[in-house]
Amino acid sequence: MRDVVTDIKMAHIIRAAHNLENWAFDEIYKLYADKIYRFILVRVGNQAVAEDLTGEIFLRVLNRIESFKGETVAAFSAWIFRIARNMIVDHFRQKAKTQPVILDYAGIMAAESQLNLSQKTEQKQAHEALYKAIRQLTPEQQQVIVFKFFEGMGNAQTAKILGKTEGAVKSLQHRALAALGRLFPN
After folding, report:
1. Under CATH, to which class is 1-99 assigned?
2. What is the DSSP letter of 66?
3. How far is 119 from 51, CA to CA, in rounded Å?
4. Segment 55-66, tens digit of pLDDT
5. pLDDT band at 124 (very low <50, low <70, confident <90, very high)
6. Is residue 44 within 8 Å of residue 91, measured between CB atoms?
7. What class is the 106-186 domain?
8. Annotated domain spans of the chain
9. Full-prediction pTM beyond 0.70?
10. CA distance 127 to 151
């Protein structure tokens, strides 16, 4: 997370959320909205759908906060990303067909606005090639790559979110990186 949130601060926020204090939900939203949105966008490939699902996820968090029993940042992150993952599964079940993953380059490219035009073009081509390669991975491999490298999560947290063992996450990561090595041009 951009803000360093200690487990003590998170425990305070969670206790306040259990008491339905508005400021606590504001803090949770500030801490997680962008990360949840990006996670969903990677999976659904549509900004409008990602925005809608992000809103629904925070409604679920509000309605189910009393079911969360942990007090650490890692536990809460795993819990909220599990809600997001389940919401995405529900979304695709309702659609009855899967869409290819389409990644949004706008945020990345905006951060690089200071680069000159040739550097921007080169960067954009590299990002497009990487995202094209990521889209060729299995859905589970994509999730591991997003959690580990885009969100900076560890194996334990990724495993908890995906409902897998740490060994399975390591194996998925290894296979995903090997596949990317074959797919991504040098």
Report:
1. mainly alpha
2. G
3. 31
4. 999 989 988 998
5. confident
6. yes
7. mainly alpha
8. 1-99, 106-186
9. no
10. 17
